[in-house]
C-alpha cells in the first residue's frame, strides 16, 4: 500500500509538470514574475518536498549495511 | 581590466587547491579516481551538483530564454529537478552499493560483471566516450566565451582575452587541477565553486535590477505589451510535444560517466539523502535568475546574434567592474566544475576499462596506472580544446550538447535500469539496446548535421484563393493588387511543396511580413504578422506514412523531429523520444529471446545477502 501511494505521488508530481493550462498565460505574479515561470519555480519546491517524502518513507535502508567483498573487490576493481 | 584580475585570482586559487590535494593524495587509482570513497554528505552534494552544472546552466539557459522565453525553465530546469533526484535515489544509491561491495569504479566495470561479458563493457565504453567528449567541449567553449566577454571593455572593439585564449586558460587550469589533485582536488574545488555559482544568480539579479529604474515589472510589462516579444512571457511558441520530450532528457544525468563515478565516491549511502532533497532547490537557485535575466535581456539589449552571452553583457553594462569579475568567476565555476569531472571521468574510464582491464595493470603496476591516467588527462583536454576552437563558428553551446550527448545518454538509461532491476535482462538485450542507441545517434547526427538548405520557393496559388497561416490576421490593402503568398504555410500546400508547418518556436522562424508577394487579380488582402500565434517555420519531410510525418527536419536549424501529423503541424517529438523507447524495447525483446543470465550472476546481484535491487 505504501509503495502504491508513493508511486501515485511521483506520478501526480510528474503530471503537474505538464501545465497546459498556463501555456498562453502572460500574467505576472508579484508584478514582475511571469505566471509560467512562477508555476515552475513552485514546482521545483514541490519536487523537493516529494524527494523528502521518498527519503522518509522509501529509503533503501538495507544498502547501508553494504560491506566490501574482498575477492569480488579485487576482481571488479582490476 | 579589473574583472580580468579578479578572474585570474580565482583561477589561481583553483590551481592552488589542486596542488594542495596532490600533497594529500596517495599513488593508487582508488585514491586518484574516487578519493578512496571517503566523500561526506555535504561535500558529496556540492560536488555532485557541480558535476552536473555546466556552462549550459548559466550561459545556455539565459541565451535560450533570450530567444524563446520563460518556457525554458519548465522545459529544462523543473523537469531536471524532478527526474535527476529520482534517478540518483533509485539508481545512484544502488550503484554506490555495488561499487562498495564489488569494487567497481566505473559503470563499464559493473556492466561487464553484471552480464559476464567483456565485449558489452567495451561497446558501452566506446559509446560513452564518444558522447562525453562533446560535453567536455561545451565546457571549454563556455569558459572561452566567458573570458572573452568579461575581458571586453564597454567600448572596446576586441576583447583582452580572445576566445581561443580563454578556452586555453580554462583547459590548462582544469588540467592542472585534475592532473595533480585527481578526485580529491576536483571535489575540494567543487565546494568552493558550487557555493560561488549558487550565490551568483541572485546577486546578479539584484545588481542588474538597479539598472532599471522602473524595476523588472516595468520591463516585463513592456515585453508583454509588444506583439513581437509577448511570446517570451508564455510558451505559445513551444510545442507541447517538445515540452514533453524534454522530460526524458534528464535521464541522461545518471548515465553520464562522471555522475556515476561520483556516486561511487560517497563514503556512505546516507550521503545521497541530503543530495536528492536539496537538488531541485539548487536547480531553482541557479536556473530561475538566469532564465529571468535572459528574458529581461531581450528587452534591454535586443537583437543579439549570439544570445549565449546575454548575462555577461548585462553584467558588464550594469555591475561595478570588480563585481562583474566576481560574478564572471561564478560562471567560470559552473564551467570548470563540470569540466574537471568530465576530464577525470574520461581518464578513469580509459585507465580502468581499457588500460587495466586489458592487462596494463598487471604488466606495469598500480603506480604506472596513475601515471597513465595523468597522461591521458593532458591528451584528452588537448583534443577537446582543438575541437572547441573548430566548433566555435559551427554551432551553439546548447545545440551540440542536446543533439549528441544528452539524447544518447538518456537512451542508455534503460540499459542501466535493466541491469539493476531486471533479473531476466541479458547481455544480448544490452548489446541490442546499445547498438540501437549508437545507430540512431549516428543517423540523427547525420540528418541534423547537414548544412542548412534554403526553403523551397513558395508556389503560386490559384487566383483569388487566399490562404492564411494559422492565427494569421489580415488587413485590406488599399493600393496595390498584391497579396501575401502563404502557400508554404498552408497545410494543404504542404503535400505539394513537400514542406510542412511545424515547430513554431524555431529561432529562425520566418516573419510573415517577409514572405514574398505575388500578383493577383482577386480582391486584395494583405497578411500581416500574427499577434497571438507564432510564425510558422517549415520542415522538410524525410519519411511519411499516411497522414503522419514520421521524420522531418528543419531546413533552417537542422533539428529533426519525430511523428508530426499533417493535421497538427505544430507537433513533433524530439529524437530523444524514439531513442529512449526504442532502446527499452530492444532490451526487452532481445532479453526475452535469449538465454537468461547464469544463476551465479543472479545470486551475486539479486540475492538477499546482496543489496536488494528490487
Précis, in short:
The complex is a heterodimer of chains A (78) and B (614). Chain A has 78 residues and is mostly helical. Chain A has three helices and two strands; from the N terminus they run αββαα.
Explain this structure to me?
The complex is a heterodimer of chains A (78) and B (614). Chain A is mostly helical. Chain A has 3 helices and 2 strands. Chain A has a two-stranded antiparallel sheet. The longest helix of chain A has 24 residues. Chain A is elongated, with a radius of gyration of 21 Å. The C terminus of chain A is likely disordered. In chain B, the strands form 3 sheets. Chain B has a 5-stranded antiparallel β-sheet with strand order 3-6-7-8-9, sandwiched between helices. In chain B, a hairpin with a 7-residue loop joins strand 8 and strand 9. The longest helix of chain B is centred in the N-terminal third of the chain and has 47 residues. Chain B is globular, with a radius of gyration of 26 Å. Chain B starts with a helix and ends in an 8-residue tail after the last helix. At the A-B interface, helix 1, strand 2, helix 2 and helix 3 of A face helix 5, helix 6, helix 9, helix 10 and helix 13 of B.
Largest interface: A-B, 48 and 66 residues
Are there runs of chain A of 5+ residues with pLDDT below 50, and where? 72-78
**Overall geometric form of chain A:** elongated
Number of helices of chain B: 22
Oligomer: heterodimer
Amino-to-carboxy terminus distance of chain A: 43 Å
Strand ordering within the main sheet of chain B: 3-6-7-8-9
Amount of beta strand of chain B = 5-15%
Question: Roughly what is the average pLDDT of chain B, rounded to an integer?
Answer: 78
How many individual β-strands of chain A?
Answer: 2
Tell me the strand percentage band of chain A.
Answer: 5-15%
How many helices of chain A does DSSP assign? 3
Order of helices and strands of chain A: HEEHH
